[in-house]
Design brief:
Mean pLDDT: 88
Largest sheet: 8 strands, parallel, barrel
Strand order of the largest sheet: 2-3-4-5-6-7-8-9
Number of helices: 10
Order of helices and strands: EEHEHHEHEHEHHEHEHEHEEE
Radius of gyration: 26 Å
Helix content: 25-40%
Structural class: alpha/beta
Number of strands: 12
Strand content: 15-25%
Shape: globular
CATH architecture: Alpha-Beta Barrel
CATH class: Alpha Beta
């Protein structure tokens, strides 16, 4: 009968805060995007709380469907996060909103969140709205980009003015390259259309150069700025290797954030992970190194010579 020797190799207990591998973080805000609602429910909520705690995340940019909001489903989610000193922002957006007449959709979302906030307690309220509109994804962008950008600015200004009636913070997402051809529109967006600019700074190792103008404008107008970093696995079509930190790991990302923050020396700068699922995947990879492993070792087969022939017998080493 074979005897199985099981050896447990325990490297260490995986520490929830990741302090053992994470470089000392400067005092800046961190946030997390999520378009999925799976982790909002009980079966995924524990994982979410672990991820938020491990990474010292202060704000959750979370999508909810209109039906979920009307049915008051975000209440428990927001309350539990508030207990951990984590704010929740409603995340929404569609490229068509950039050119929509009378700005119906963004005004509608603002009203939806305002009406929800009126019905709940203080610790169940959304802190604000993150508008991720991305007008450059419209089909007629290449032929009509100037008019699209002009209308986008107009709609964002209108949305910001409308949101002020309900004391809702507005965060607007932009790509890092808006200042290349639309500096004046970027300046007006910063000055007139938001409380915070969230820069989709998806170009690894070039974040500082890609954010200089945005930081200068936020400093000038007293607005906050958020550097969003990509964590999705590289894909030849949509996620080039050059834009994501997936293959380099969180430790490299964290050190880059510290470098960016130190370079600009702007206290109203924060950072954000894009997005929940890739961040969880990165954490799972780290955690796997701390999980005890089992080694099944086959017994040594040793030959013994007897007078009536050659026999085999099992032996322990």
């Amino acid at each position: 009968m074979k005897q199985i020797i099981t050896i447990y190799i325990t490297l260490s207990i995986f520490i929830a805060s990741l302090h053992t591998i994470k470089p000392q973080q400067f005092v800046y805000e961190t946030s997390l995007f999520s378009w999925s609602t799976e982790q909002v429910y009980a079966e995924g909520f524990t994982d979410l709380l672990d991820i938020l705690s491990m990474n010292n995340i202060n704000s959750s940019y979370q999508y909810f469907s209109d039906e979920m909001i009307i049915n008051m489903q975000p209440k428990d989610y927001i309350k539990k996060l508030n207990e951990e000193n984590i704010l929740t922002y409603y995340l929404s957006g569609n490229p068509s909103w950039a050119t929509e007449r009378r700005n119906k959709s963004m005004r509608g979302k603002i009203k939806l969140i305002a009406e929800y906030n009126e019905k709940v307690t203080e610790d169940e309220k959304f802190a604000g709205i993150v508008f991720d509109v991305e007008p450059y994804l419209l089909s007629d962008w290449s032929s009509d980009k100037d008019n699209i950008m002009t209308k986008f600015l107009e709609n964002m200004i209108d949305a910001y003015d409308y949101a002020e009636n309900f004391n809702l913070t507005i965060i607007v997402c932009i790509p890092y390259w808006f200042d290349n051809n639309y500096y004046e529109i970027l300046e007006d967006l910063t000055m007139k259309a938001c409380d915070k600019i969230a820069v989709m700074n998806y170009y690894r190792n070039k974040e500082i150069n890609n954010m200089r103008n945005e930081v200068d404008l936020c400093r000038k107008y007293g607005k906050s700025i958020i550097c969003i970093s990509e964590l999705q696995p590289p894909d030849s079509d949509s996620v080039p290797e050059s834009i994501t930190y997936f293959s380099f790991g969180l430790n490299v990302l964290w050190r880059m954030w510290n470098q960016i923050y130190s370079y600009f020396d702007y206290t109203d700068m924060g950072f954000s992970y894009h997005y929940y699922k890739p961040l969880k995947n990165c954490i799972d990879i780290i955690q796997a190194a701390y999980i005890p492993i089992t080694i099944n070792k086959k017994p040594y087969i040793h030959k013994v010579q007897y007078s009536d022939g050659l026999l085999f017998t099992e032996s322990l080493y």
